[in-house]
Amino acid sequence: MQGRAAGWVGACDSDRDSDEAGVGMARDGVPGWNPQALRQARAEADLTQAQLSRRTGIARSLIALYEREEQGRTPSPARLVALAAALGRRPGDFLKEDTKGLAALRALAGLSQQELLDRWGDPDIKLSAYRAIEWGKVRRLRQHDAAGLARALGVTTEEVIAAHEHDIHQWNLKTATKDH
Q1: pTM of the entire structure?
Q2: Alpha-carbon distance 122 to 4, whole Å?
Q3: Among 37, 77, 83, 169, which residue has the fewest nearby CB atoms (within 10 Å)?
Q4: Does domain 102-179 have CATH number 3.40.640.10?
């Protein structure tokens, strides 16, 4: 990775959860959120939104928003983990099958970007630099950085590399669309 933290400062927005930031931008919550999966799991557990709220500590109104198909919100990674635990499911059960990338791996680990950095423990990587990695703006991920991320996420280095390659591809598609 060239320049590590240099050159990326200020390139990205806040890492606050969508339900705490007051905006429903999916990138702030878990990517690939599947509201239908939450509704179905809650129904199968024979729980009301209020009962699930008591089990998780998440406001009933937020659970209702998480279950909405249109203009709903996505939970933070930590809330995804809490919902899954309360319903006896895996966090991945609440994501669309085609969800990929570093943000998805981070969400499945129940970590915010800052929590991931804290767990990674590399003082040379700043939040803005990690955001650039996660968005696919950073083309090369050094092997030792991929290994550090894998340890922090509880996955293999190969999974991190594949997720990063997916993010690069998505960034390329996004920037190519802007150019045309």
Answers
A1: 0.74
A2: 11
A3: 169
A4: no
